[in-house]
Amino acid sequence: MTTNDSDRHAHTPDRVPEHQPRLAWAKLAPDVSKAMIGLEKAVRQGIDPVVYELVKIRASQINHCAFCLDMHTKEALAAGESVERIVQLSAWQESRHFYSAKEIAAIELTEAVTVLTDGFVPDEVYERAAAHFEETELAYLIAAITVINSWNRLSVTSRTLPGHYTPGMYK
Questions:
Q1: Would you report the helix, strand and coil content of the chain in percent, each value rounded to 5?
Q2: Average pLDDT score over the chain
Q3: 7-34: pLDDT as tens digits
Q4: How far apart are CA 138 and CA 130, in angstroms?
Q5: Neighbours of 67 (CB within 10 A)
Q6: Which pTM was predicted?
Q7: d(Cα 132, Cα 107) in Å, to the nearest integer?
């Protein structure tokens, strides 16, 4: 028996009902939405697709963005990424052997840009990323991290509902 997406998320006695989004920001600010989509398309063209999804997932984990986690894990799986690497991403420091040195550099940079704990990106984190990415690619990587952080903040603040995304839905 197969279930469709709405059946999987339907309220059952053992599940909490879905929340309602606070605000349909994309409908209320369509010019902003269009600009964000334009940024997303520009960034995607300049970065390796695997690194791109790892960055999107890791920033979304840190920012607790359920909608973006739903979207980017599904996109990563559709692109051939393994469940194992996606699952281990939240504990990548203990699971380094699942990733290349270049991917780890991108993940470290993602965390530094996303959290900005010290108010800046530490030199050693930036230097590790710069050692694995040529300058143009590094510029796109930094832009990708910045864009997902913006998406996360829009989705978390408006409480965008996760669970209904299908790969390619917004491309």
A1: 70, 0, 30
A2: 91
A3: 555 557 788 888 888 899 999 999 999 9
A4: 7
A5: 22
A6: 0.88
A7: 12
